[in-house]
């Protein structure tokens, strides 16, 4: 197939037959992160110009899903998990466990290829940060954020998210 040698990387550049052939010939892995954790990371990296987390969240909500930055846009609109049959979904915070399984399934040596992740520390830190940042938000902002990310929360396993009311 000529598409194996093309520089195009977006599926939208190919016709339906080519898309189906490509998706059927690859192992598809989706890396996901709790939407609230994505917001916190974006804010901490200074990608928003807001002075407080609450005002940053308000800017996100005001932007709407169609004008949202890729940094905080709902994952469902970016990677279409309802249309693409992903073989693996790797959750942020469980990289060591899940990547080890993925490498083993691919027949690769887990020990030499897997970097040292500190999943437990990452999960604990984000849990603490989530509690602090969530407490800064108004009840209305919390409700609107849950609605903003409703499709992510229903399509992906974020059951412990602060937004999963």
Automatic annotation (TrEMBL):
<dbReference type="GO" id="GO:0050655">
    <property type="term" value="P:dermatan sulfate proteoglycan metabolic process"/>
</dbReference>
<dbReference type="InterPro" id="IPR018011">
    <property type="entry name" value="Carb_sulfotrans_8-10"/>
</dbReference>
<dbReference type="InterPro" id="IPR005331">
    <property type="entry name" value="Sulfotransferase"/>
</dbReference>
<keyword id="KW-0119">Carbohydrate metabolism</keyword>
<dbReference type="GO" id="GO:0008146">
    <property type="term" value="F:sulfotransferase activity"/>
</dbReference>
<protein>
    <recommendedName>
        <fullName>Carbohydrate sulfotransferase</fullName>
        <ecNumber>2.8.2.-</ecNumber>
    </recommendedName>
</protein>
<comment type="similarity">
    <text>Belongs to the sulfotransferase 2 family.</text>
</comment>
<dbReference type="Pfam" id="PF03567">
    <property type="entry name" value="Sulfotransfer_2"/>
</dbReference>
<keyword id="KW-1133">Transmembrane helix</keyword>
<keyword id="KW-0472">Membrane</keyword>
<keyword id="KW-0333">Golgi apparatus</keyword>
<keyword id="KW-0325">Glycoprotein</keyword>
<dbReference type="GO" id="GO:0000139">
    <property type="term" value="C:Golgi membrane"/>
</dbReference>
<keyword id="KW-0808">Transferase</keyword>
<keyword id="KW-0812">Transmembrane</keyword>
<keyword id="KW-0735">Signal-anchor</keyword>
<dbReference type="GO" id="GO:0016051">
    <property type="term" value="P:carbohydrate biosynthetic process"/>
</dbReference>
